[in-house]
Amino acid sequence: MSMDKSVATAAEAVSDIRDGASIAVGGFGLSGNPMVLITAILDAGVRDLSIVSNNCGVDDWGLGVLLKAHRIRKMTSSYVGENKEFERQFLSGELELELTPQGTLAEKLRAGGSGIAAFFTPTGVGTQVAEGGLPRRYKPDGSIDVASPQKEVRSLEFGGRTRDFVLEDAITTDFAIVHALRGDTHGNLVFNKAARNFNPIAAMAGRVCIAEVEELVAPGEIDPDGVHLPGVYVHRILEVGTDVEKRIERRTVREG
Q1: What pLDDT was estimated at residue 2?
Q2: Segments of the chain with pLDDT less than 70
Q3: Are 246 and 36 contacting, i.e. CB atoms less than 8 angstroms apart?
Q4: φ, ψ for residue 58 (rounded to 5)?
């Protein structure tokens, strides 16, 4: 049986993503966004998507293009501050948001990819993260339509001291889409610097992981010690080239 996981086009890579699918998406800010695959999903016309990602891009880039086209029903994120359309849709009741502490979100994805059902963390104890009541969806009149539920909190001894911990469920999704610098046809991936952010753990959480890579090489051309994500987590791989557009959220330069 061939282990070649490469596909020829982005449209082929995302062809089985249907309305209502859940998708874990790599990237942090605009670093490491799988933009070719995001655009292919936009072109495919699917809607009512439930997206798990650290953030939702900006108004005209990253996941922001899906949001602007009203293709996203729910976002599970930790940071939502760079997208005015996100703010508008959430406050008007058009978008559901499960706001999650960043480290907790990362661990929920990693746990899901590792087969761990849930875990205890001190993050969020004593706040609405644990106690519930955070707005997830508003009504058009500004009142809360859906609020976050109360979570289990236990007093546990850990590291020689007793403290409270909140139980967090792991996250798994129907699909994952990620961007990597290099990959081989078996699906082994290498990420470039800051792009090695949420990409590996998003890939782990998806039941079907689709990776876009700037360079696709033959098996054996990547040093095994240099593999950041093993191919067992990757189901399809698409070469997008090294000239893909990469944006910077905020450029700060010093006056010369």
Answers
A1: 62
A2: 1-2
A3: no
A4: -125, 180
187 Cα distance to chain centroid:
19
The pTM of this model reads 0.94
**DSSP assignment string, the chain:** -----B-S-HHHHTTT--TT-EEEE--BTTBT--HHHHHHHHHHT--SEEEE-S---BTTBTTHHHHHTT-EEEEEES--TT-HHHHHHHHTTSSEEEE--HHHHHHHHHHHHHT--EEEESTTTTSHHHH---EEEE-TTSSEEEEPPP--EEEEEETTEEEEEEEEE---EEEEEEEEEEEETT--EE--GGGSSSHHHHHHHEEEEEEEEEEEE-TTSS-GGG-SB-GGG-SEEEE--TT-----S-------
Q: Is residue 79 part of a domain?
A: yes
State the residue range of the domain holding 68. 10-117+170-239
CATH of the domain at 85: 3.40.1080.10
Phi, psi values for residue 230, rounded to 5°? -70, 150
**Residues 28/62, Cβ–Cβ less than 8 Å:** no
Tell me the C-alpha to C-alpha distance, in Å, between residue 9 and each of 12, 14, 36, 83, 153. Answer: 5, 9, 10, 29, 47
* Residue 33 is assigned to a structural domain of this protein: yes
Please tell me the total number of residues recorded for the chain in this structure: 256
The pLDDT value given to residue 253: 83
How many domains, the chain?
Answer: 1
